[in-house]
Amino acid sequence: MLKRNAPVLTARFEAMRDDPTDVAHYRQLGGYEGLASVIDMGREQALDELDAAALLGRGGAAYPAGRKWRHLYNAAGETKYIVCNGDEGEPGTFKDKALVESDPLAVIEGMTIAGYEFKAQQGYIYIRGEYRHLRAIFNQALENARAAGLLGDHILGMADFNYDIRVISGAGAYVCGESSALLNSIEGKTGRPRVKPPHLADVGLYLKPTLVNNVESYASIPVIMREGGQAFRHLGTPGGGGTKLICLTGHVKNRGLYEVDLGTPLEDILYSEKFGGGSSTGRPLKFIHFGGQSGSIGAADQLHDCLYSYEDLKTRGLAIGSGAIVAMDDSVGIVDYLTSVANFFAHESCGKCTPCRIGTLRILELLEKFQQKAGVPGDLAVFENMVTHVTQLSACGLGQSVGKPMLSGYELFPEEFKQAINWQTVERKEVAW
Amino acid sequence: MTTEEKIAIIDRYHSNPEQILNILVDIQFQSEAGYIDQQTAQLVAEKLDISETRVYEIVSFYAILKETPQARYVLKICDSSPCHFSGEPVVSQWLQEKLGVGENQMTQDGLFMYHGIPCVGACAQTPFVKIKGEVFPHLTPEKLEKLLADLKAGYYPELVGGESHVEA
Ligand SMILES: Cc1cc2nc3c(=O)[nH]c(=O)nc-3n(C[C@H](O)[C@H](O)[C@H](O)COP(=O)(O)O)c2cc1C
Ligand code: SF4
């Protein structure tokens, strides 16, 4: 039974604290019931459950997991790969770290269910380079699962269920979280994105059909299969089922990781003592940056009746993304904030395409100029155009996301941008081309 | 770190080119100078049967992998926005005062160096520094002073070539 407003993905964290890799203990707490259910109900039914669950990808793009799994299920080819994206590069996000650290077997069970579903033999989990210590925990959990006959040859004694998981370390490149770059990185190449289409479910790792899902998505799979898709969906809203791990950072009192039902009022998340507890600085909160650096920014005073759900945020031009919620008080100027965001993009652009490689740098330079209040008339139009160009002309989600924080921030606080311009100077005219 | 030790790491990953990141990260983590020197690059290239250029392509692409010698203790400071506006920049000020060097410069004794990196997932613990895998959270000038003194006195052996984590 799934209860509302109760931990689901974090339910075992406390109980398994002594040894999160202990398979017997994990099984006592409902572990591997999801896998058993899938074997019981059959592969087609499992896809139906996933559809009913309305699980949207937790890595940031919110792509329906059911649709992705069905695509791979129908993809031609004997060999299919299962990949777990644990690159967790979005600043302000540390929920995949928590899952891998505190309940690694749930991630392994989710990946094993995928292995069964697609008759795959090999799965990979890509763990962020900065999370080096997690590799030991995860490897131990893999080892224990193998010893218990839950990975390796003849899983659960079944003749044709042979599946194992390998860990790959990242090495500090945000772009490697992009799914096709991730696959290149796993293949031992530099982690630059591939040109898409083709879809990775058709042409993925080593050119074979491949499933790429986020750590939190995989951890949700056993719950869905154990409790049923409907039960999972009822935890959330019609637009997206389940609970969501969120990371509260910035100027709230109780920074940290929380699990909330999708559809929880945003005010509760920010201000109730159970969660954020309101401003930590005594100053009112001014704006909230959702979903990581690549997400959009909302003004705190315009979000009073907003629910933390996929659909409610969407109607306000915002998104859940990775689950990062960065709250800033009114001491933070939007230009300063966006400069820091631009710095991140300029630093992490992989350089494969020109608009992103050069554009992110030019955006950063322009914002630094605004910080010095050294803008000239015409600069704001240049800023808007440049951001729009980078967003429209870039090849992957990194460059394409630049517009979200930049334009949402600009639109919310245009006055602060205007104050960055010295209106007495000569206007800068863009050269038409 | 001896050549044999490096080969042992490569062998643990079955000289599989797919494992090049695991191999390079593990070797660098255990190396004294914290970088992939040319000998290592050559060795890895030979063992994995790929070109040395490929190895250098990888080393230069991934931020964690270094091409030049690092200080014994590299103090990493988060410069992503959640931390940047939550008191993290003060750490680089303190470090500049206490160590007398700028960002990315090594102290004369070769012990310390500090620089900014993107989010390390410790956003709820500012101000902090991260050294190798270890986060030292909620710093004050006093705590930082003590940390530097402890490091000088060699209290954190695991931060210089600690144990490695290897998969089957
Ligand atoms: C630049 C960039 C970085 C990304 N980083 C991550 C990441 O760190 N972790 C993640 O799960 N997804 C990340 N994504 C999203 C992935 O491309 C992909 O959508 C996701 O892993 C799919 O899993 P999901 O559907 O379960 O969310 C990133 C995307 C882009 C464009
Ligand atoms: S948009 Fe940026 S990060 Fe993405 S492929 Fe182009 S240069 Fe690389």
From TrEMBL, chain A:
Coiled-coil residue windows: none
Molecular function terms, GO-annotated: 4 iron, 4 sulfur cluster binding; FMN binding; metal ion binding; NADH dehydrogenase (ubiquinone) activity
Domain NADH-ubiquinone oxidoreductase 51kDa subunit iron-sulphur binding, first and last residues per copy: 335-380
Entries under SMART domains matching the protein: NADH_4Fe-4S
Record's signal peptide: none
PROSITE patterns, sorted: COMPLEX1_51K_2
Keywords assigned by UniProt, alphabetized: 4Fe-4S, Iron, Iron-sulfur, Metal-binding
KW 4Fe-4S (keyword) present: yes
Family: Belongs to the complex I 51 kDa subunit family.
Name this polypeptide is given: NAD-dependent formate dehydrogenase, beta subunit
Organism field: Agrilactobacillus composti DSM 18527 = JCM 14202
From TrEMBL, chain B:
Molecular function as annotated in GO: 2 iron, 2 sulfur cluster binding; metal ion binding; NADH dehydrogenase activity
Ligand binding ([2Fe-2S] cluster): 78, 83, 119, 123
Keyword Iron belongs to the record: yes
Alphabetic keyword roster: 2Fe-2S, Iron, Iron-sulfur, Metal-binding
Residue intervals passing through the bilayer: none
Keyword Signal: no
Matches recorded under InterPro entries: NuoE-like, NuoE_dom, NuoE_N, Thioredoxin-like_sf
Cofactor: [2Fe-2S] cluster
Protein origin, superkingdom: Bacteria
Cofactor: record remark: Binds 1 [2Fe-2S] cluster.
Family: Belongs to the complex I 24 kDa subunit family.
Protein name listed in UniProt: Putative NAD-dependent formate dehydrogenase, gamma subunit
